[in-house]
Input
Amino acid sequence: MGTPCFKIAMALVASVALMGVSGCSKKSVQSGGDTQSSRQGSAAKSGSTEGSKSGVGNFPDTSMQSEGSGLRGLDKNPSEEHVASGFGASPAGASAGMGGSLLAKADPSDAASRQLDEMRAEQAASASAGLRDVYFGYDSWTISEDQRQALTRDADWMKTNPVAMVKVEGHCDERGTTAYNLVLGEKRAKAVRNFLVELGISANRLSVVSYGKERPSCAEHAESCYQQNRRGHLVVKSGK
Amino acid sequence: MNRRIVLSLVLSGLCLLAAAAGILESDAADVFLEATRPDFQKIPLGVVSIENNGGPDWLGGRLEEVLKKDVKRSLVFELMDLPSLGIKVRDVGNGYGNGSKAVFKQAAENGVSVLVWGKAGLKKGEKEDDVNMEGFVYDSGSDEIVGGKRYAGSPSVVRLMAHRFADELVFRYTGEPGIARTKIAYVSAHGAARELFVMDYDGYDARQLTADGFLNLMPRWSPDRRFLVFTAYRDRNTQDIDMIELATGKRWTLVSYGGLNITPALSPDGNFLAFASSHEGNSELYRLDTRTKAVQRLTTNPAGELSPSWSPTGRELAFVSDRGGGPQVFLMSSDGSNVRRLTFEGDYNAAPAWSPRGNWIAYVCRTPRKEYKLCVISPDGQKRMQLTTGGGIDDSPSWSPDGRHLAFSSTADGKSHIYMIDADGKDLERLTFEGSHNSAPSWSPAS
Output
């Protein structure tokens, strides 16, 4: 495809890419540099420990089983089919093993209340530390001049509190797809982490997580809110 | 000779004018018009009635209403308005009386190919009073009652009876299973959390599947409909790719690398899980063999790759990469080779979904006015069409298994809700009305 339109489009894309890259060449990292330290010393994850399979757990077979459609076709002398609401592969006319119950009920797990407690503790610790958030432009993960001040203060706090571990959360405004915003949020969080490392903070004190657009701090469909949501949010990790 | 030249010139001039006039008359600057031909002519079908035969008052009417909507949504049948054709809607019994013969004759004369009617009533059971439904189908082409169905079950599955009957009609006339019994998994806000839900394809009977209290995102079905794979935030700080068994609620962790583990997608044969993970630097695509548990890395680009979508043969993947600066849709073989770019219009194209028919890839396209809309593009990149317009943020297109509909989320009505739309952009229908942040719909395979 060598049409003029294509060439113009590629030129535009290339120039946008250049603009995006130039601002963060020093501070952000595309690949490499994200080693085991980013796992933040978390406990061994579930799953097997064999080489290429680490990080992958055991789970039931998801291979397609040969399965009729469950439809029997129209009959001139139809016999009665018992209808029960079931999920997955139960064939037509299966007796009501499930009866009226459709799905396993979602019981609130202990995890839910534990999460809340941990989040409250983190909020309290972060508030007393006075850590400042970093804000980003639309589609962007570069740290602008006016944001560097806030980050420098955060770095100073971390230097005077040498045992504190800090998590950087990457967030996005509501525009764009859920999936790509998770990647964009991670780019933002990593940009903040890398900047702090440049300022002398040890990388193993910093972890990153992306929430994409799933945990916004405000909900209005307006730029004033969007600006608040495009942020790297620093959290003092409680406990370890 | 001269006159023929002049005549042909005049004719071609007129043709050009006509074509130009056609282009000028086309509407809506940001909707790309394209002629879409239906695969076949819709079959004219009329639902005479489902008569109450002793059951609760609402029974016949409910079955009739659900059946009619299913028939209409199938896009296989043209739902005929029988009263407007002068066909008297009456109880045709079992179809063998004189009254029913008259109705059949009228139907045939008015071009109605298929007539459907039935009755429903109460069936005394040991524990609970079941309801039963009997449906009949007359085909005017062969001038005979081609068959019917009989169903029984608790009143709580009445909608499912109608759905089942509708699917049988589609199966009879197309050989395909029909979508009336399919489900849509999705994400909904539960407090500040995001949890997984499943509802009927028409928005009814929503059920909550998880209650973890944080973020569960982007569910996708296994091909046998027994499981969902999804991204679960463990301890708020890392993501895993989990699997949940719908019938039991049992959970397994499939992938738990450090960093992002997102956008899981099982292959059509269930043998591979494609997913994105950033544990080796930035977000890359991987393929997990679900039988051997071996993981193969598919992409090695310094840019971010995510959102894999399998072709219906399982031989190719559509995915998103921002190697060009912003997200664009790419294609590659399912072993990572033969990468080529698919989208070239616009600076933000993401969330690809490959139709089960193989002929279109739906995705989110950002317009020059920075609106996030739904587009479709052919796998060879030659045809492209924008399906939705307006100011809402549209996201996460997911195809119905018959390839005729898309489910997606949109903030068009203020909050994010789930909608369905035909593959040609018609018949927009809202599916969720409660809750908030209803998003990430995934349409189940047919059963």
Residues 21-37 of chain B have pLDDT under 50 and may be disordered. The first strand of chain B starts at residue 43 and ends at 52. The helical segments of chain B are 2-25, 59-74, 98-109, 158-174.
